[in-house]
Automatic annotation (TrEMBL):
Classification via PANTHER family: HTH-TYPE TRANSCRIPTIONAL REGULATOR GALS, LACI-RELATED TRANSCRIPTIONAL REPRESSOR
Superkingdom of origin: Bacteria
Protein name: LacI family DNA-binding transcriptional regulator
Keyword Magnesium: no
Statement: the UniProt record of this protein carries the keyword Ubl conjugation: no
Organism placement in taxonomy: Bacteria, Pseudomonadati, Bacteroidota, Cytophagia, Cytophagales
Length: 344
């Protein structure tokens, strides 16, 4: 069935299209009787406004573009839940795109989102994104952008992140307090802001407890499926191997657990294992895994609120921009489970 238009309603009620349009907008220019006539008929035929026509008329689409590296990642799926909850409450729709950790795909998805006339962008950059010229170009076109989780210092835009330094410090401190002294730190590429913050937290905890920083215990991996196991093997083959593994990125903890099992390394009897991860089954693993859990839904919620605030301020050019801490840092939670039980 073809969509009913304002012209169809006007023809059926023998009214002008302008009268019907004003009645649907609840204009003071239209009498209550005419409004009631139009609204009753529109409801009876299930009239739905054309969103494209509305966006052209209002110069806004009420659509938010959300760009993430991978929807299947537990952190990002939880963040999207937070974004969608706020968008729904505020009368916005969401389109979600993923870059699969590719800068080339990120550039294309940003272009596609803008071509679809989104009112603003929420983005967590890919692991390949060291140059944000494509985002700066969009910003210059007056498209509001809010970054979350993976952010760039080169962007002058709101940033909503977890307290990566604090979460990493707490995880490392916990391992030290349980008697571990050779703590391996494994993370994603070092140029990323989240990696730098987590490495700094790890180093700060070692320093506070008088332990040396050993570069042999620090490794970085890409996103290839088979990259992690050789690195775990290299660490275990050191003359003085680690007695704990701090896997400072979401997908690394499960891979490390598998690699340790393949080497018949007992957790936690021989080594402790802690992750920086939002996997929902951490407490169901064998052994249950200690984790730093990021407030993903709260990050998404806060990022969406901030973006909508910018979009609506854009509709009022005379309104002053609010001042807020930048970036907004939200605390993590440390869950201690069997995988970091005190060494025996």
């Amino acid at each position: 069935m073809e969509a009913v238009t304002i012209k169809d309603i006007a023809r059926a009620l023998n009214l002008s299209t302008s009268t019907v349009s004003r009645a649907l907008r609840d204009s003071y220019e239209i009498s209550p009787e005419t409004k009631r006539l139009v609204m009753d008929y529109a409801e009876r035929i299930n009239y739905q406004p054309n969103p494209i026509a509305l966006s052209l008329k209002e110069n806004r689409s009420r659509v938010l573009g959300v760009i993430v590296p991978q929807i299947a990642n537990n952190f990002f799926s939880q963040a999207i839940n937070g974004i969608e909850a706020v968008a729904y409450e505020r009368g916005y729709h969401v389109i979600i795109m993923q870059t699969h950790e590719s800068l080339e795909r990120e550039i294309l998805t940003v272009q596609q989102a803008v071509a679809r006339r989104v009112d603003g962008l929420l983005i967590s950059i890919s692991s390949q994104t060291t140059n944000v010229a494509h985002l700066q170009a969009i910003q210059q076109r007056n498209v509001p952008i809010v970054m979350f989780d993976r952010v760039s210092a080169e962007m002058d835009t709101p940033k909503i992140v977890a307290d990566n330094f604090g979460g990493s410090f707490a995880a490392t401190e916990h391992l030290i307090q349980t008697g571990r002294r050779r703590i391996a730190f494994v993370a994603i590429p070092p140029f990323m802001a989240i990696t730098q913050d987590r490495l700094a937290g790890y180093q700060a905890a070692l320093s506070q407890y008088g332990l040396p920083y050993d570069e042999d215990l620090v490794r970085f991996v890409g996103f290839g499926e088979h990259e992690l196991a050789p690195i775990i093997d290299q660490l275990l083959d050191l003359p003085h191997p680690p007695d704990a593994f701090f896997m400072a990125f979401d997908r690394l903890a499960l891979g490390c657990m598998t690699a340790l099992r393949n080497r018949n390394v007992a957790i936690p009897e021989q080594v402790s294992l802690i992750g920086f991860t939002n996997i929902s089954v951490a407490d169901l693993l064998d052994p249950p895994m200690s984790t730093v859990v990021q407030p993903a839904q709260e990050i998404g919620h806060t990022a969406a609120e901030r973006l909508i605030e910018l979009i609506e301020l854009k509709q009022k050019p005379s309104a002053p921009l609010p001042t807020r801490p930048n970036p907004v840092s939200i605390p993590n939670q440390l869950f201690i489970r069997e995988s970091t039980r005190r060494g025996v």
